[in-house]
């Protein structure tokens, strides 16, 4: 009964929301920016808009209530409920308002002006691609968000570069996790097994129809770190079958030069996540303590003081501003 009153069904979907669903015409309150489609998925179109009474910019996610002949309003309500639950985290996109029409619902979301990290992951331009310091900072933020979700028993199940947005692209801002369309509540007494997610980022247990857990997201976090560092999707094959085979056989190359820095901490980080057995993978909290993600002198002066005093005596200004490997002495 307690479970039911909290609105958590066997399917891992939440059904209670606080947000008022407005039946006003969306366009009475917002102006859609013409030609500004921010993105689209299978059942949603996201468009930039401006709230008339404030002039503030938002991203409006238009979601069809019927998909493949099925009523999916429950799933949209769940997505709203998860966004509400995550308002306490800066790493998750904020939900401003919700509108409902005959066949659609509109989630008015905080606008992430920097777009998907995907664009910078795959960029060929040297100056557009992330530096290792960027990747570390963004990865830390992603893990903070994921840690928050997991502490609240939410698994995202679709962590990928298209669902990690940036508040600004240059200068590089902060990340916002979006798209809780596949997210679920995990509980200790209900097993969750569902085929879903995006082939390239999906964990072995999902392919094998084995139980899904917070560790399922941690696999995807490992794939994310790999892609952000190298620009290469580690398991992507010529087709879905090949991708799935690569994942289930853990067929991944660690020979990329970005993973071969002298201390190999990035490599070690990724290897704590890309493990076949979910229980062998690091948790989000453990990842945040991994040596690779510890603050460098340049970024966090206050944490570097002790290190600096311990390691060098006089050369305070010579600490490098990049992570490029120093010639071995
Ligand atoms: P879907 O469930 O269809 O994948 P998403 O929530 O992932 O929907 O949104 C689709 C795309 O729209 C995202 O990948 C992103 O490019 C863009 N988008 C979504 N939310 C925002 C936002 N708050 N600010 C800017 N762009 C967004
Ligand atoms: Mg998406």
TrEMBL record:
Residues 299-329 are annotated as: Disordered. It catalyses: L-threonyl-[protein] + ATP = O-phospho-L-threonyl-[protein] + ADP + H(+); L-seryl-[protein] + ATP = O-phospho-L-seryl-[protein] + ADP + H(+). One of its GO terms (cellular component) is nucleus. Residues 32-293 form the Protein kinase domain. Its EC number is 2.7.11.1. Coiled coil: none annotated. GO terms for biological process: apoptotic process; intracellular signal transduction; positive regulation of apoptotic process. One of its GO terms (molecular function) is protein serine/threonine kinase activity. ATP binds at residue 61. Residues 2-11, 306-329 have a biased composition (Low complexity). Its main location: nucleus. Belongs to the protein kinase superfamily. CAMK Ser/Thr protein kinase family. DAP kinase subfamily. This is Serine/threonine-protein kinase 17A. It comes from Cyclopterus lumpus. The chain holds residues 22 to 350 of 419 of the full protein.
């Amino acid at each position: 009964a307690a479970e039911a009153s909290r609105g958590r069904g066997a399917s891992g979907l939440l059904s209670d929301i606080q947000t008022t669903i407005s039946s006003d015409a969306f366009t009475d309150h917002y102006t859609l920016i013409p030609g500004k489609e921010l993105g689209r998925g299978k059942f949603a179109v996201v468009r930039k808009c401006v709230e008339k009474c404030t002039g503030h910019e938002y991203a409006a996610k238009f979601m069809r209530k019927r998909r493949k002949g099925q009523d999916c309003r429950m799933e949209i309500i769940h997505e709203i409920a998860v966004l509400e639950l995550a308002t306490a985290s800066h790493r998750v996109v904020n939900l401003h308002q919700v509108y409902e029409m005959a066949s659609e619902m509109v989630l008015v979301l905080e606008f992430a002006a920097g777009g998907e990290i995907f664009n910078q992951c795959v960029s060929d331009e040297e100056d557009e691609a992330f530096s290792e310091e960027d990747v570390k900072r963004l990865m830390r933020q992603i893990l903070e968000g994921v840690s928050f979700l997991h502490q609240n028993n939410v698994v995202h199940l679709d962590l990928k570069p298209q669902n990690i947005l940036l508040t600004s692209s240059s200068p590089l801002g902060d990340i916002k996790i979006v798209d809780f369309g596949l997210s679920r509540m995990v509980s200790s007494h209900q097993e969750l097994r569902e085929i879903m997610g995006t082939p390239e980022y999906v964990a072995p247990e999902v392919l094998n129809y084995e139980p899904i857990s917070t560790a399922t997201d941690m696999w995807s976090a490992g794939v994310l770190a790999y892609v952000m560092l190298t620009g290469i999707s580690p398991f992507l094959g010529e087709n879905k079958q090949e991708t799935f085979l690569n994942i289930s056989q853990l067929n991944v190359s660690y020979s990329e030069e970005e993973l071969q820095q002298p201390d190999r901490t990035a490599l070690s980080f990724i290897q704590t996540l890309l493990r076949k057995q979910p229980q062998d993978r690091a948790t989000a909290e453990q990842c945040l303590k991994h040596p690779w993600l510890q603050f460098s002198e340049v970024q966090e002066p206050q944490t570097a003081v002790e290190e600096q005093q311990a390691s060098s005596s006089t050369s305070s200004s010579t600490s490098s501003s990049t992570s490029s490997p120093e010639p071995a002495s």
